[in-house]
Specification:
It is a single chain. By secondary structure, this protein is α+β, with helices and mostly antiparallel strands. It is 16% helix and 31% strand. The chain is globular, with a radius of gyration of 16 Å. It starts with 10 loop residues before the first strand and ends in an 8-residue tail after the last strand.
Length: 124
């Protein structure tokens, strides 16, 4: 019988940084060990081990910077149901092009976004 997965069911999905030098910041992050997924003039996306993504943006007012992190789950629908059953009152799932997501406000008033997984299938 296969052993049950004992890993936590959530992980950090995205972290975001504002930079005035996308190309240079992206290259720095590549040099320290991140995988470049996208590098554009005003936006870059890099992958860390475990599927966490670093978002670099030149727009200091970007909605990507409104939180210091978000969380990811393997099955967004199952997690939404589980959190609903626990009485955590998640909002409705928003279906997107890259992620499906929902938000929950934790007791301290912080709004936490939960996203569907997008762990890359590139070789490790």
């Amino acid at each position: 019988m296969p052993e049950q997965d004992q890993r936590p069911s959530v992980w950090v999905g995205h972290i975001a940084l504002h930079t005035k030098k996308i190309a240079e910041s992206c290259e720095f992050m590549r040099q320290v060990g991140m995988r470049v997924l996208m590098n554009q003039e005003n936006f870059a996306l890099l992958e860390l081990r475990g599927g966490t993504h670093l978002v670099l943006t030149t727009d200091e007012n970007s909605s990507l910077l409104r939180r210091s992190f978000d969380l990811m789950v393997d099955d967004i629908d199952a997690s939404h149901k589980e959190f609903t059953d626990l009485g955590l009152n998640p909002d409705e799932i928003e279906r997107g092009n890259i992620h499906d997501s929902f938000e929950i406000t934790e007791p301290g008033g912080n709004v936490i976004m939960f996203n569907s997984s997008h762990v890359g299938d590139l070789p490790v």
